[in-house]
Amino acid sequence: MRKSGLLLLALKFSWAHRAKFVLLSLLVAVGMTVFLVVTELSRVSSTGLDDAIAADVGEAGTYAIEVYGDLGLSIDELAGEVDAALQPFASRPPLLVEVLPLVQPECPPYRELGPQRILILRDHQGDPAQLPFGENLPAESEFCLDGQEIPATALYLPTPAQQREFGVGLFIDSRYRSIVRLSTTDPTMFRFVVVTQRQTDDRDAIQQAVTERLHDHAARHGVAGDYALVLRVDTGDSIRRASEGIRVVYLVIGWGVIILGGLGLLVAELIVVRDRTWFFGLARALGAGGRHVATLVILDVLLTLVVGTGLALVLAAVSEPTVRSFAASAFGVEVQLLQPSSLSQLVIGGLVVLGLAAGYPAIKATRPDPLDVLEPSS
Amino acid sequence: MTDITAMLDAATVRYSTAHGSVTALREVTVSFPAGSASAIVGRSGSGKSTLISVLSLLRRPTSGRVLLRDVVVSELSERELARARASVGIVFQSFHLEPSLTAAENVMLPWYFGISAEAGRRRMSRRTAYRRAVDILERLGIGALAGRRPNAMSGGQRQRVAIARALFTNPILFVADEPTGNLDEETANDVAATIFGLPATFGTTVVVVTHDAEVAAMADTRLELVRGELVRTS
Predict the structure, then answer these.
(1) Does the distance separating the beta carbons of B177 and A287 come in below 8 Å?
(2) A12: which chain B residues are within 8 Å (Cβ-Cβ)?
(3) Residue A63, C-beta contacts closer than 8 angstroms, at least 6 positions apart
(4) DSSP code string of B86-142
(5) A285–B85 C-beta distance less than 8 A
(6) Under a CB-based contact definition with an 8 Å cutoff, are residues A231 and A63 in contact?
(7) What's the gap in Å between the CA of B212 and the closest CA on chain A?
(8) DSSP assigned state of A122
């Protein structure tokens, strides 16, 4: 099939009806720009907004599993057992916080703070994890235990969000663990933090999995009763639902605009097909196949879409500063209208419009019998 | 058989209407020799237009066969039949010219759709197609109108453009259904003369349906249809 000839013909028809073509292209441009804006707002509401919520109230599906005592296992062994129990739930490897007993610092300013719970962060295998030690502390802080000074560069004061996740206390470099242990004989608690990223409440399932996994060790170690407790750390279900609601609203608006635009083009194209019925009949009489006629109709819509989408890209570039400012002030998020993900959404939106606006008219254009549309029956 | 361009062999066409079945053609057998010019006459409803629609491959006979040269085209698939239509140039009573295209562009309309009657449907450049369209218009005496749009032409000029379009694919058969029906007498005679001169100028076999006796008189052969039956040949 000679598509270049049909494209040329579609261009000639568009040029012949310039006013209609320009108006429809503007319709597409406005629709596509709105689609681009709300799609981007939807994206940032589901990522940027969720990130902000996670920072404030914790990542969705964050659980703390508190194991009281080592159950006769080394840290590595305990971490391995709990890690195995959490495998079905974890979206990423869990973290382990070794919660050492309360200790009383012996030099200022911590003497005034009273007893401190000392924390050591470890990975899912029980190995010490890196923290920005030395940050969040006054420059000349001193921390003394058992007559020895622990430098500020070995300490880290967790942020409020980290405290919610890991527990309240002071992180210490694992190299100083023995000094803390010398200060107290109380048992250690192990706090595993796992993130499922699911909104559903998995507390019971996680509790059962951990309890079953540790049961034999606890029994051998002579521990009875509750040796592990699962807590849900994250909060803010309602704000997450609200965020999800906003995202859905944006999606509905975006795709609603696309569908409305598609229906608008569909009506316009049906009028074109009605007015050109004789022409399509003539083409068939001359020897054109149904696919030639259908292609011509599709190209007619495609030209409008291509020009309209091009205009939309220009409009998006022009309106980007305003949209950025709005998003920053309203949601505290940064939007970027012209980026690969938005452009791919635009292509998908364009294909939906093309299908909506050209599908039925293309079929309709191939249906009439040339004899019926070219000559009245005698 | 090769000196026959087109042939109807016991062709019957029946329609279903709200009032029952209507037989438009009854076992019509007729052949059109290569280079001949024939006129089909008859009263309204006699089956003239049906005969033309069968010859132009726009309608299949209910029974019987249609042959173009040696090919039984009435038995071709829809796609093959559409392709075979390029071998038949057709002109209607209404000119059916696209107002947004110039005369030459209207003539080369088959090129836009990639239609060609020539073997292998070899591609023709747009420039070549345009030259061919202008050449045909010149041979029909309206080459000067190549760049003009239909709404700036007279009825006779428009019908000549329609004739040129029908000739663009170099068809072996040219059929016209009341081609002078919308024209005044003088213009009608000019257009009829052009059409009946096509065998000499373009080597095409011509079949014209007309109710105009003066036009029919210009043909080599006149066929009369009465209630779907071929009753007389002169």
Answers:
(1) no
(2) 100-101, 105
(3) A89, A193, A194, A195, A196, A202, A203, A206, A230, A231, A232, A233
(4) GGEEEE-SS----TTS-HHHHHTHHHHTT---SGGG----HHHHHHHHHHHHHHTT-
(5) yes
(6) yes
(7) 16
(8) E
Residue of B nearest to A295 (CA): B113
A73 φψ region: left (φ > 0), alpha (ψ -120 to 50), beta (else): beta
**CA distance to A76, B143, B192, B215, per residue, from B183 (Å):** 102, 21, 11, 12
Cα separation, B71 vs B59, in Å, equals: 16
State which fold the B4-233 domain adopts. Rossmann fold (3.40.50)
Cβ-based burial of B77 (10 A; exposed 0-12, middle 13-18, buried ≥19): exposed
Sequence-distant (≥ 6) Cβ neighbours of residue B71 within 8 angstroms: B84
B109 CB near a chain A CB, below 8 Å? yes
Task: Provide the chain A residues 100-119 that lie in CB contact (below 8 A) with chain B.
Answer: none
A13 inside 8 A of chain B by CB: yes
Measured CA distances, B205 to A182, A301, B33, B47 (Å) = 115, 40, 7, 21
Interface of B with A in 161-220 (CB under 8 A): 165, 169, 177
- The tokens describing B72, both together, are 């039984």
pLDDT per position as a tens digit, B43-69: 888 888 899 999 999 899 999 999 998
Separation of alpha carbons A369 and B136, rounded Å: 29
Q: Which of A286, A291, A371, A374 is the mutation pick for testing B, counting most B CBs within 10 A?
A: A286
Q: Which tens digit of pLDDT belongs to each residue from B101-135?
A: 999 999 999 999 888 766 455 678 889 999 999 99
Which pLDDT belongs to residue A109? Answer: 59
> Domain ranges in chain B?
4-233
Check if the beta carbon of residue B57 is closer than 8 Å to that of residue A287: no
Query: Distance (Å) from the C-alpha of residue B218 to the closest C-alpha of chain A?
Result: 24
The pTM (predicted TM-score) of the whole model is 0.71
- Please tell me the distance from the alpha carbon of residue B231 to that of residue A258, in angstroms, as a whole number: 63
* Structure confidence at residue A110 (pLDDT): 58
The answer to which of A139-143, A178-182, B140-144 has the lowest mean pLDDT is A139-143
> Distance (Å, rounded) from C-alpha B60 to C-alpha B172?
19
Q: Which residues of A touch B161 (CB under 8 A)?
A: none
> A289 touching B, CB under 8 A?
yes
Rounded to whole angstroms, how far apart are CA atoms A139 and B189?
A: 110
Instruction: Render the burial of B14-30: b for 16+ CB within 10 Å, e for the rest.
Output: eeeeeeeeebbbbbbeb
On the question of a cis peptide bond just before residue A109, with omega within 30 degrees of 0, the verdict is: yes
Residue labelled with tokens 């009281």: A68
Residue ranges per domain, chain A?
Answer: 3-54+239-374, 61-234
